Amino acid sequence: MTPAARVAAAIEVLDRWRAGTPAEKALTTWARGARYAGSKDRAAIRDHVYDVLRRLGACEANGSTDGRGLMLGLMRVQGQNPEAVFSGEGHAPSPLSPDEQVPPAAVASDPWLDVPDWLHDPLRESLGDAADDVVASLQGRAPLYLRVNLRKAAVGEVQDHLASDGIITETCGLSGALMVVEGDRRLRLSATYLGGLVEIQDLSVQMACAAVVWPQSGRVLDFCAGGGGKALAIAAVSDAQIYVHDAVPARMSDIPARADRAGVVLTTATRADDHAPYDLVLCDVPCSGSGTWRRDPEAKWRLTPDRLAELGRIQRQIVEQAQRLVRPGGRLVYMTCSLLRSENEAVVEAAQSAPGWAVLQSHRFQPPAASDGFFLAELQRDGVG
Fold first, then answer.
1. How far is it, in rounded angstroms, from Cα 308 to Cα 310?
2. What is the overall mean pLDDT for the chain?
3. Which residue from 12, 93, 226, 310 has the least number of CB within 10 angstroms?
């Protein structure tokens, strides 16, 4: 496909998204009907769509709200000449109309355009003086980070293996963390990944996990395990018995294969209290995902005030349940990938108000320094049984 044909395909996908189809489903539907498109074509079209979702407000201000207008706006935001692409030749989009040929007075660059209006105040209140920088960082793509499985190999050795797979990495100041700088799309089929030497894990998550002293014996429960990424990270540095649980067990379907690949043992707890009390319970709770908007920009346009309030209630309920599972003297670790105080500090304050609980530490990890936004709090239950 030519670059212009890829833009035309992105316009089609964005029109489907505007009609209510989730972005990934719209991309998949388009690809199924375009068997002629190669992997590079599909990747380029996906990049166009997600670049628009990251800069949606700016794209609308520099084009219009339908797929064609959004791609026109994206090209202007990126400093490209749209007339070279909107030519009508071959499979290119049709030429620009007289109205489309007239650009706006100035290319909109305010990063707050790319965040829903109702979230401006909550983000400013949550992020303080860092708000402008954090929101600006959300306009770009996030790097891909890897966690080296130090139980299997040293960092330098893993970098050499990745390089032989065509994947170039850099260390980034945290033990076992690598940033991919070339060849990211080769990773999942590489021998290094399939052999369990690395796992995909954002830098902010690795920083948060490194801030906790995990038990070296006893029992640890990952209460909202999902795909098991945090449990695998704990197992890499702890000899405790690690249990995984999720309210939707299907979310954990990949855990056995991932644990086998990593060479660790994770035990499923069908009921969260099956092996209680625990020395430590990890609650990586469902949240807005506002810290991951560089990777999933569609999420910021799906989020509503009602959904955010609902998430707050769910988070408090999960923590209350988890607190009952911690042994006297044990700990609870609370994590989110949210930038919002209502999902972070406010939930921890409610947990701390329960008798016998104290906060040991609380940290925010924010882009651009930490790649994604992430929050960590560690609480301890007193030793009275």
1. 5
2. 94
3. 310
